[in-house]
Amino acid sequence: MAVELPALPYARDALEPHVSKETLDYHYGKHHQAYVDNLNGLIKDTDLDSKPLEEIILHADKEGKAGIFNNAAQVWNHTFYWNSMTPSSGGGAPKAGSKLAAAIDEAFGSYDKFKDEFATAGKTQFGSGWAWLVAKGGKLEVRKTANAETPLTEAGVTPLLTMDVWEHAYYLDYQNARPKYIEHWLENLANWDFAEQNFEAA
Description:
about 200 residues; mainly alpha; Helix Hairpins; minor pseudopilin epsh fold; 2 domains; three-stranded antiparallel beta sheet; 3 strands; about 50% helix
């Protein structure tokens, strides 16, 4: 049972002008697909071949199997990233009065303070990586991870939202202006409905 490339939750041009169809053609169609293909090659004819993706990630992390972990985690991280964006009603603050909005105010003081902390995490992640909003013990935290690292490997942590800050996520649209990509992402694309669902399930 091979790992498959999940379908995007929207058309490849749906995030324009903030993320172009050309970026998704490369990022989803080539980078994400390559992680899927590489992972399937690595786990073929092994006990992991029939395991769920999350189980493959945790096993590879525990056993120090870097090649399997990097590809499996990148498959999962990217799928989570696509769902962390929405072409309709994305960006800005979560719905006033929602459980997530209240949790953000409690954890960070305000949405604006959260936004600053999240943006800073993305800007200051040296090299490639991710910025995350996660729940731990009912409290919200902003995290950043390098390369393929993912909060999935930490017990008791539930990812709510992620932003990809690898260069291939933004370079065609923003060149080296990562802060501009982050600003557009937070103002126009962040999928708070998805984050709310994850928070309620945490």
